[in-house]
Amino acid sequence: MHPAHAFHREARPRTALVCLVALLLLHGPSAAAGFGTKIDAGDRECFAETLSAGGSLALTFRVTDGGSFDVDAVMYATTVAPLDDVEQTTRIHYSELLMARRENTTTAVVNAWRRASAGSQTYTAPAAAETKHGLPAEVTVCFDNSFSRVSPKWLLFQFLKRDVLEVDPTSTTRAEAEIEKTLHRHGTVLFELATVAERMRQVGEADRVRYASLAHIIMAGLVGNIVILALMAAYQYVTLTRFLTRRRAK
């Protein structure tokens, strides 16, 4: 067999495998944002993420340092009121009545935490089939340290996004649609695993910060003990020297 033919036969399975992995990565979860931030005492900070219709967003956060390792948090979701039918979508950008409805947004509390050291929440935006317009939702998370008068808080938080499955029946075959659905199911599993892995990472980071603080406290205690022992030795030396000097003088 010619070497070139053997190379092409081996290259085809590799190319197919690379394409499959690439598709799986495209359908997997995406890290929308990951932050480590400091919230001063008496302060409140908010962060927002845009979420496509039908998509899911997972939030995980953990206080890593400061005070009692706690913070108040609230997660909001802002959505546009649904339309009556799909035909109104074509007129939503120039009809005054529909434009007013487009601006008629609703903000609801998804979850709230009080004096929490950690938390997680997953939110799924209304699908296009439900709203008829398919406009994105906005998810806002606010961290509140206003109850603290002195101590700032350091926290880690992460947004993970998961897009909705979109299959166009006019541009894909039945086999391709089945592949898309299978990849989307695998992507859902990856999304859940990524959320759990992020929580574990934040736990590890919080433990690392606490161990580092404990090491600093132990080091400061050792230095303090050494200083105290040195002062006691110096005091005893001076006292004994004076005592012996007086005895010799007598």
List keywords for this structure.
30% strand; alpha+beta; Jelly Rolls; 4-stranded antiparallel beta sheet; 45% helix; disordered N terminus; 8 strands; 250 residues; single chain
The share of residues in extended strands comes to 25-35%
Separate helix tally: 4
CATH class of the domain at 29-194: Mainly Beta
Tell me, briefly, the overall form: elongated
Question: What this model shows, in words?
Answer:
Belongs to the EMP24/GP25L family. This is Transmembrane emp24 domain trafficking protein 2. It is a single-pass membrane protein; Single-pass type I membrane protein. Keywords: Membrane, Signal, Transmembrane, Transmembrane helix. It is found in: Endomembrane system; Membrane. The chain has 250 residues and is of the alpha+beta class. The protein has a domain at 29-194: GOLD domain (Jelly Rolls), CATH 2.60.120.680. It is 45% helix and 30% strand. The chain has four helices and eight strands; from the N terminus they run H-E-E-E-E-H-E-E-H-E-E-H. The protein has helices spanning 3-27, 96-103, 128-131, 174-249; strands at residues 30-39, 44-51, 56-65, 71-80, 105-116, 118-124, 137-144, 153-162. A four-stranded antiparallel beta sheet has the order 1-8-3-6, with helices on one face. Strands 2-7-4-5 form a four-stranded antiparallel beta sheet. Helix 1 packs across helix 4. The radius of gyration is 31 Å and the shape is elongated. Mean pLDDT is 76; it is low at 1-34.
